[in-house]
Amino acid sequence: MDLDPSTDLSFTRTLAVPRQLIWECWTEPKHIPHFFIPAPHKVTAVDIDLRVGGRFNTTFDVDGHVMDNHGVYLEVVPDEKLVFTDTYTEGWKPAPEPFMTAILLLSDAPGGGTTYTAIARHRNEGSRKSHEDMGFFDGWGTVVTQLEAYAKGLMP
């Protein structure tokens, strides 16, 4: 995938968990609260309709402030690729202030586990810079660390 460093942020990690389990964690509502926002913040609600055009809605509690996040899936390739955005909400209704499109790529890692790539695409350099300044690498890095730890606990 071609990345534009002026508008895209990304990182890749190897997770010691099978990619099917990572996929399950990202696509089943019961799992999302266990990793999707850096602790001690919380995910208090998840509403998923896993199909292109289907909703990916979450609610966060950040220091007592409720934050509703509404988005849609743009691409769903089981066990390989998940693309969602807040540019639209369900029914292809444009969001008033879209922020980004997230792309998650999963593949089998050499030697086992999952190669996990997270990409955040933004409308312009200013949005990318804002996201980076908000702590993209630390925040999304913490989320993937939490995801791996949670998923390991689900392994037989």
What is this structure's SSE topology?
Layout: E1 8-15, H1 19-27, E2 42-48, E3 56-62, E4 65-69, E5 72-77, E6 81-85, E7 88-89, E8 93-94, E9 101-108, E10 114-121, H2 125-133, H3 136-154
Antiparallel strand pairs: 1-10, 2-3, 3-4, 5-6, 6-9, 7-8, 9-10
Pfam families: AHSA1 (PF08327)
Protein name: SRPBCC family protein
Domain Activator of Hsp90 ATPase homologue 1/2-like C-terminal: 17-151
Describe this structure in words.
The chain is of the alpha+beta class. 24% of the residues lie in helices and 37% in strands. Strands 1-10-9-6-5 form a five-stranded antiparallel beta sheet, covered by helices on one side. Strands 2-3-4 form a three-stranded antiparallel beta sheet, with no helix packed on it. Strand 9 and strand 10 form a beta hairpin. The mean pLDDT is 95. Belongs to the AHA1 family.
Widest sheet: strand order? 1-10-9-6-5
Low-confidence stretches: none
**Helical stretch count?**
3
What structural category arises from helix and sheet content?
A: alpha+beta
Distance between the termini: 33 Å
Share of helix, binned: 10-25%
Q: What is the number of beta strands?
A: 10
- The mean pLDDT is 95
**What about the largest sheet?**
5 strands, antiparallel
Q: How are helices and strands ordered from N to C?
A: EHEEEEEEEEEHH
Taken as a percent bin, the fraction of beta residues is 35-45%
Rg is 15 Å
**Dominant shape:** globular
